[in-house]
Amino acid sequence: MDMAVTPVAPHTPWNRGKLLGQKPPLRLKDIWAIRFRLQLAKKTRDLALFNLAIDSKLRGCDLVALRVRDVQQGNHILARAIVMQKKTHRPVQFEITDQTREAVGNWIAKDDLKPDGFLFPSRIASSPHLTTRQYARVLGEWVKSIGLAPRRLRNPLASSDQGDPDLSQDTQPAGRAAAPRPHEAREHSPLPRHRGR
Predict the structure, then answer these.
(1) pLDDT digits 0-9 by tens, 108-141
(2) What residue spans of the chain are helical by DSSP H?
(3) How far apart (Å, rounded) are the C-alpha atoms in residues 100 and 172?
(4) Which of 171, 148, 157 is nearest to 37 (CA)?
(5) Pairwise CA distance, residues 32 & 43, whole Å
(6) Three-state SS string across 57-70, please?
(7) DSSP-derived 3-state class of residue 122
(8) pLDDT digits over 61-91, tens only?
(9) 106 near 44, Cβ under 8 Å?
(10) Statement: the pTM of the whole predicted model exceeds 0.70
(11) For the chain, which residues make up each domain, given as ranges?
(12) For the ranges 8-17, 35-44, 163-172, which has the lowest average pLDDT?
């Protein structure tokens, strides 16, 4: 008996050409390019927001809700700050670099912010501080300004509960200890020997 084989049209996978998995964060050269553009454009608020986001690695909701008193004591910008995270309800401590302290100090002075006020107040009357949607839009503008597609990157400034997975322990920022990875922190028992047949 002859069996006829009918040709099947080639099937294109649903994920062909799509970026799957974890999106890459900004690279160091991209961070410096954004900083440089913000400095050239004299965008004081954006530079303070960007630098603080990089230093703190806070989630967007925690970053936009920062108050002046969280980063400033008297007329002095703090070298370290502690903020309670909304999602985990855990305090997180971060170091504020000299460059960021200068940018935040310039922003506070320029906008004449009060200690009880929000560090990044909204220009919209219905919102006391910058919203996460506004922050995402501004972040997208920064990324576009250096020629990258914002959708191809995960939130490059977002927090990770286990430290920054993209930085090895040797390259962790000063003053910030590398968090142990879950598989390294566990104690492993030896595998049982398989008894032969």
Answers:
(1) 999 888 989 999 998 877 778 888 899 989 988 9
(2) 28-40, 44-56, 60-64, 68-71, 98-111, 132-145, 182-185
(3) 17
(4) 148
(5) 15
(6) CCCHHHHHCCEHHH
(7) coil
(8) 999 999 999 999 988 999 999 999 999 999 9
(9) yes
(10) no
(11) 33-154
(12) 163-172
Q: Which of 81, 84, 77 is nearest to 99 (CA)?
A: 77
Among 121, 124, 117, smallest CA distance to 49 is for 121
Mean pLDDT value across residues 165-183: 45
Burial of 123 (0-12, 13-18, 19+ CB in 10 A): exposed
57/85 Cα distance (integer angstroms): 11
User: For domain 33-154, is the CATH number 3.40.50.2000?
Assistant: no
Identify whether the C-beta of residue 90 lies closer than 8 Å to the C-beta of residue 84: yes
Whether residue 117 contacts residue 68, with contact meaning beta carbons closer than 8 Å, is answered with yes
